[in-house]
Amino acid sequence: MQIAKKIYFASDFHLGSYPKEQSEIREREIVKWLDHIKQDASELYLVGDVFDFWFEYSTVVPKGYIRFLGKLAELADAGIKITLFKGNHDMWMFGYLKKEIGATIIDNELILDLNGKSCYIHHGDGLGPGDKKYKILKKIFRSSFCQWLFARLHPNLGIGIAQRWSKHSRISNNNDEKFLGEDREWLIQYANDILHTQHYDYFIFGHRHFPYEIELRKDSKIINLGEWINYYTYAVWDGQTLNLQRWNS
């Protein structure tokens, strides 16, 4: 009997975040999850901030993550299509994973057809109202000139600076984000604005570090994937519906 193929979505693993020991424990748990979904997955979408920091020098990438990267390669070799989105922590992802495992790298949004259902996917950073400071920084950090300048730093210095910065991030300090309400969550506001001119059956985001699943309209739903520090949540398309689930090993 043939197993029905599913499509999986997850985000915000933040591999490499401080403290390192917790990141390694999280990596092993993610690998268990990837082992689990391998049996029925046709596609895997990792919707940003897979790494707490990532920069691809011409001959160097950050060390570590060997179990995770090896498992991704195993899934790719098994014929599972892998798509990675750039997040605000790993926006400097270029061609390395495309070359090594055939992954598709998405800069911003992706419009996906799920058996006739339209789906809008984005990491979620820089969308909606407010956060003007970050939106300016995003344009600077994503510029080819900024990337060229950072590449001039020796990897020990460049990655070292990023790792020290990571110790002060919200994920390293396990800051507990609160749901602001449907009228104040900027990703919900952003999705509702889109719906004024373009219909989507589903919106999928990461970035906000808690999971939620909300009906925007009778025929449109928004899903925030959460993170893998506290929640271990992901979404799965079973061919008919898209829903949040929680991983329990």
UniProtKB/TrEMBL annotation:
Q: What are the GO MF terms of this UniProt record?
A: UDP-2,3-diacylglucosamine hydrolase activity
UniProt keyword list: Hydrolase
Chain segments annotated as coiled-coil in the UniProt record: none
| Signal peptide region | none
Q: What Gene3D superfamilies does the record point to? A: 3.60.21.10
Where is it found, in Gene Ontology cellular component terms?
Answer: membrane
Domain of life assignment: Bacteria
Statement: the UniProt record of this protein carries the keyword Signal: no
* A GO BP entry: lipid A biosynthetic process
Keyword Hydrolase appears in the UniProt entry: yes
The name of this protein is: UDP-2,3-diacylglucosamine hydrolase
**Could you tell me which species this protein originates from?**
Sphingobacterium yanglingense
The taxonomy runs: Bacteria, Pseudomonadati, Bacteroidota, Sphingobacteriia, Sphingobacteriales
